[in-house]
Amino acid sequence: MRNRLRVLRAERALSQAALAQMLDVSRQTVNAIEVDKHDPSLTLAFKISQVFGQPIEAIFAGLEDTGLDDAGLDDEDGANGGQEP
C-alpha cells in the first residue's frame, strides 16, 4: 500500500524515532511503513491520521488510486487482459 508518511513526517521535521514515540511503536515499524514493507493495522492507521490531522485516505492509497482494478488488471484491459474471448 502506497503512503505519504515519509513526506508528511518530513514536512513537520519529525525524525522516525520521534514519530515512533508519538505512535507508541518502534522506529523500525515507522521505517517499514514508509518503504512499503509493512501495512499498518487499522488502529495504527487511525493514530497516524490523528497525528497528521488528515483522513486515512489522504495518507494511504490502495488499488483505487493506482488505476488497477481488484484483480490487478488495468481497467481498460478488462478481466481477460485485453484479449478477445
From TrEMBL:
SUPFAM superfamilies recorded: lambda repressor-like DNA-binding domains
GO MF terms held by the record: DNA binding
PANTHER family associated with the record: DNA-BIDING PHAGE PROTEIN, TRACRIPTIONAL REGULATORY PROTEIN-RELATED-RELATED
Domain HTH cro/C1-type: 5-59
Gene source species: Alteraurantiacibacter aestuarii
Biological classification of the source: Bacteria, Pseudomonadati, Pseudomonadota, Alphaproteobacteria, Sphingomonadales
Keywords: DNA-binding
Superkingdom to which the source organism belongs: Bacteria
Protein name: Helix-turn-helix domain-containing protein
